[in-house]
């Protein structure tokens, strides 16, 4: 899967959409021919032509064969997701769609019309965003199955010359501020809560005053997360945690509970051989997972029934 929407390319699509004047007719579904089947699931010429137009708008690789192969990869990963009962909520897709509209300075409805004027249906972008999110979920789930042996960890410790008896790790005291979003809320309400969370971050007065701040806001709760070391908080959140100063907050994240902000109340170095070993294990796991997506897709392709038409 080569294509990813890059925020630095959004000005290009804004210009392209701004130049649009007349609506271009979309290819009729009835005229679509099957270009490929993936385990008997069809990818049509309409699907491919729509994706090519979308990729051109975003200045992404848009060759016919490359686009078709990307769509085959996405279909394989989507089939894995369905077998495992994984799904991407419509609200998450709409949130991403609206986010792109905001970045190109258009209301969502006008953004959809602008896409249509370039021959791209809004649902084509939504399907692409869903495929990106779904593929990420499947590959992350696969990554969790990677196991690093204790022997590998010990070998890395010896290679780096680490004295585990005197090793230290950073420990954080964290607080969580949750802007509650009830289940079934509209994408618009989620967006409203995100704006409220961003505004809260700008005036965040530190952990001591956050409870009082939250009490003044409707539907906001503050939770003490206690102490966590850097080995316990991994991934993008862990990376952001390591670079955010005490008294600062991490970027808001949309979760099942709502929009959540993590505040750093305190940070200090503590002696912990277990923590150091966990950090090394995380790094080794990340290294092993670099080519995981490509390897996994190659494995799926090998076992799949793919027919090009």
From TrEMBL:
It comes from the Bacteria. The keyword Ligase does not apply. Keywords: Signal. Residues 1-28 form the signal peptide. The keyword Protease does not apply. This is SurA N-terminal domain-containing protein.
């Amino acid at each position: 899967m080569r294509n990813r929407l890059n925020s630095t390319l959004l000005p290009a699509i804004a210009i392209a959409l701004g130049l649009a004047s007349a609506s271009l007719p979309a290819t009729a579904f009835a005229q679509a021919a099957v270009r490929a089947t993936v385990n008997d699931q069809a990818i049509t010429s309409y699907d491919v032509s729509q994706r090519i137009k979308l990729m051109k708008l975003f200045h992404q690789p848009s060759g016919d064969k490359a686009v078709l192969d990307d769509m085959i990869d996405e279909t394989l990963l989507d089939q894995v997701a369905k077998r495992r009962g994984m799904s991407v909520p419509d609200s998450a897709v709409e949130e991403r769609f609206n986010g792109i509209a905001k970045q190109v300075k258009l209301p969502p409805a006008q953004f959809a019309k602008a896409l249509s004027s370039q021959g791209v249906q809004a649902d084509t972008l939504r399907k692409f965003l869903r495929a990106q999110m779904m593929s990420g979920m499947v590959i992350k789930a696969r990554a969790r199955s990677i196991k690093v042996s204790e022997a590998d960890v010990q070998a890395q410790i010896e290679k780096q010359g680490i004295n585990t008896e005197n090793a230290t790790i950073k420990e954080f005291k964290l607080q969580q501020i949750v802007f509650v979003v009830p289940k079934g809320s509209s994408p618009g309400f989620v967006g409203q809560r995100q704006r409220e969370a961003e505004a809260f971050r700008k005036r965040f007065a530190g952990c001591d005053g956050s409870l009082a701040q939250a009490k003044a806001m409707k539907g906001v709760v503050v939770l003490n997360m206690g102490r966590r070391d850097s080995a316990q908080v991994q991934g993008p959140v862990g990376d952001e945690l390591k670079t955010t100063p005490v008294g600062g907050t991490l970027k808001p994240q949309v979760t099942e509970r709502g929009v959540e902000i993590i505040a750093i109340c305190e940070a200090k170095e503590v002696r912990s051989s277990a923590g150091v070993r966990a950090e090394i294990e995380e790094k080794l796991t990340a290294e092993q997972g670099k080519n995981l997506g490509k390897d996994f897709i190659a494995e799926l392709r090998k076992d799949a029934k793919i027919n090009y038409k």
